[in-house]
Specification:
alpha/beta; Rossmann fold; Arc Repressor Mutant, subunit A; 2 domains; five-stranded parallel sheet; 5 strands
Length: about 270
């Protein structure tokens, strides 16, 4: 069972979030609730939390401060900010904390679950590393964006940036990409890049990365001689069961069912 912490000083929002995660992931996770940053840190230590979903604006110790302390105490913890600040003025202070994603309230349920799925994958990866088992790590990015990205009017520039991001992610989705990796390649702060990414694609980074992998898997599933486990590994998932779960969540059917539907149409 994955150990998940949610922290939000708004009782109703915290209860709704708890209910959503329990309904969608309750068979995979144990979930604790905190009403502020201080309580979050106590639960973090007491239960050795692997995934933390934090509001930013909380009394006393806020989400930024709590996240920084969590990162100091446990580098492998996946931290997700769930915030109402769409200008990311607070999130700018989070540079260096290395969060998995920023989600804006109100957040689409499928985006939230998708980010939690990725956090669970990273928790599995961290466990393997603790056991000394070899895992695939990201190579240094080789893509360098053109200086032309900073030219043109607003819409032209946004289109150029979107194309550059799309190109990089389509070439590197198999790697263990993070939002920070791509922000660094594009020469943006992670907070600004998160806002820019949402403008370009109308979805968060983790959701887009998952969709890139699933689309690549669909193409490979048209090849009858390649088994599903190999396809999962080819698009970045070492665990075939996890790959099948993510594929079904995105498409509504399993990889095997998708393959059969392709062949039945021929």
């Amino acid at each position: 069972m994955y150990r998940v912490l949610i922290a939000d000083d708004e009782l109703i929002e915290r209860k709704v979030l708890y209910k959503t995660l329990t309904r969608e992931l309750g068979d995979q996770c144990r979930i604790w609730q905190a009403a502020n940053g201080r309580e979050a840190l106590e639960l973090f230590d007491e239960h050795d939390i692997q995934i933390a979903v934090l509001d930013i604006e909380m009394p006393g110790i806020n989400g930024i401060e709590a996240a920084a302390e969590m990162r100091r105490r446990k580098s492998s913890c996946s931290i997700i900010f769930l915030t109402a600040f769409d200008d990311f003025s607070y999130a700018k202070k989070a540079i260096g904390i290395r969060v998995l994603d920023y989600l804006l309230k109100p957040c689409k349920e499928e985006e939230l679950v998708g980010v939690l799925d990725e956090a669970m994958r990273l928790a599995d990866k961290a466990l393997l590393e603790e056991k000394g088992e070899e895992v695939q790590t990201i190579m240094e990015p080789v893509f360098k964006p053109s200086s032309e990205l900073n030219t043109g009017d607003g819409q032209v520039r946004l289109h150029k940036v979107a194309e550059a991001i799309r190109q990089y992610m389509e070439e590197n989705y198999v790697r263990d990409l993070s939002m920070q990796d791509v922000a660094r390649v594009m020469n943006y702060s992670e907070a600004y890049f998160c806002k820019l990414f949402k403008q370009c694609f109308d979805k968060n980074f983790t959701t887009y990365l998952t969709e890139c992998r699933v689309e690549a898997a669909k193409r490979l599933l048209t090849e009858p001689m390649v088994n599903v486990k190999e396809i999962g590994e080819a698009v970045g998932y070492n665990d075939s069961n996890y790959f099948a779960k993510v594929f079904k969540r995105v498409t509504g059917i399993s990889p095997t069912e998708y393959r059969m539907s392709i062949f039945n149409r021929k």
